Every structure is written in C-alpha cells, then in structure tokens.
Task: inverse folding
C-alpha cells in the first residue's frame, strides 16, 4: 500500500506547476513567424526578423531562470556540502582540522 500524500505538499506542488506557463511565451513568440517575418523596424541596422529572435533568446533565458528558482524547493533542513546518505552507509567523519577523509 502506498504511503498517504500530505495535503499541504500536494497543494504546494500544484501551485508550483502554474509557473511552468511562463515557459510558453518564448515558443509562441518565435514560432509565430508571420508576425516577425519582415525587415522593418530596424534596430542598430539589424532587421526586425533577427533582433526579434535574439530578444526572445534573452527573454527565454530570464523566464527559465525565474521558473527554475520559483519551482525548486529545498526540502532538506540542512544544506551541507555532502548529499543524503544512503541506508547502510555512513557519512565520513571530519578530522580535527575540519577536513573530511576524502580531502586529506
């Protein structure tokens, strides 16, 4: 039998999914070719066709970064250097100088 799902966690996940809608405008802006298949207006001598696509590259990167930050959650209470320890294994202990066994 599967473990019950915490309602608070489920609500949080559903709210986070709406941020993914922000990933759609770059696709629409670049795939709607009849809108920008023209030479005018020019920007620094570049036809509209080129600078419109380049603008969407920058805009898409910004939107992707925003969605990434808003949808990733740090569930771990401690954000230490070492990742989670798998069952049956122990995390290496630190020496007197604070270095981990792998660092020494």
Result:
């Amino acid at each position: 039998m599967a473990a019950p799902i915490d309602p608070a966690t489920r609500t949080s996940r559903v709210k986070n999914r709406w941020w993914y809608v922000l990933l759609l405008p770059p696709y629409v802006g670049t795939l709607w070719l009849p809108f920008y298949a023209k030479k005018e207006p020019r920007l620094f001598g570049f036809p509209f066709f080129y600078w419109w696509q380049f603008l969407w590259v920058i805009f898409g990167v910004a939107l992707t970064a925003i969605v990434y930050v808003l949808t990733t959650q740090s569930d771990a209470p401690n954000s230490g250097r070492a990742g989670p320890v798998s069952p049956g294994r122990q995390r290496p202990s630190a020496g007197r100088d604070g270095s981990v066994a792998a660092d020494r």
In short: The two ends are 46 Å apart (CA to CA). The chain has a mean pLDDT of 74. The chain has four helices and no strands. The first helix runs from residue 7 to 17.
